[in-house]
Amino acid sequence: RGDADEPVIPFAQPGSLTRVFCVASGKGGVGKSSVTVNLAAAMARRGMKVGVVDADIYGHSVPRMIGAADRPTKIENMIMPPQSHGVKVISIGMFTDGNTPVVWRGPMLHRALQQFLADVFWGDLDVLLLDLPPGTGDVAISTAQLVPNAELLVVTTPQQAAAEVAERAGSISTQTRQRLAGVVENMSWMEMPDGSRNEIFGSGGGQIVADSLSRTVGTTVPLLGQIPLDVALREGGDAGTPIVLGKPESAAAQALDAIAEKL
Ligand code: ADP
Predict the structure, then answer these.
(1) Is residue 28 within 6 Å of ligand 1 at its C-beta?
(2) May I ask the CATH class of domain 17-262?
(3) What does the pLDDT look like over 176-198, one tens digit per residue?
């Protein structure tokens, strides 16, 4: 922009080698943060340098899910992000007081995000994942402005109603001109003791979103994978050890790992 006061965001510079993914969903509770931390951990395990920005002001559950409990420190003018399982993490929750709800308005959020991208010492990252708040709000627009080359990853459940709102979250890419990296369907089924699949939240949502977004943008938006329900996924999130590390043999971990591989 040429504005001397505008902080420089390394990821947005031409020639930046960092791939930036915005993880979006239509509504809360579909597993967006769980998918974000597991993809991050899976990529870090492959030897990639990975960072996560928790921009979900309402949830800000990323630090707990990945076990990054420390507060960021400051060295000179840079914020040093805590690290866990080889992933650097910064969260809006690290700058609030305990459990105080965040009631920031758009411009403040934009500045916070700008700081997370410009003033955090990320080093040379291969991948930066941004966990966006659900919906199509200010933060999604802000990230698109701050990092126009960021790609969008849409998380949905198989349920029709969830798919419809996820479509809306994805179609924001036509406004922001971001590339749509693909769709992830979470909570796709529960494996029963007899090996059968119980589709608790219905079926087809991920494919519906992928097809509909493909029509909207005029190129193929892939359904990158389907992640089953697994108690161990929730437990791993609560304990700060993502399932891709804690129970890599599980179907859920393997589905997540395969998605990380495709990106
Ligand atoms: P969001 O970020 O979309 O609000 P979360 O990732 O916080 O969703 O997930 C909501 C809750 O559901 C969390 O307690 C999480 O552990 C749990 N969860 C998410 N995906 C799964 C899954 N595939 N199997 C079991 N529990 C899951």
Answers:
(1) yes
(2) alpha beta
(3) 889 999 999 999 999 999 999 99
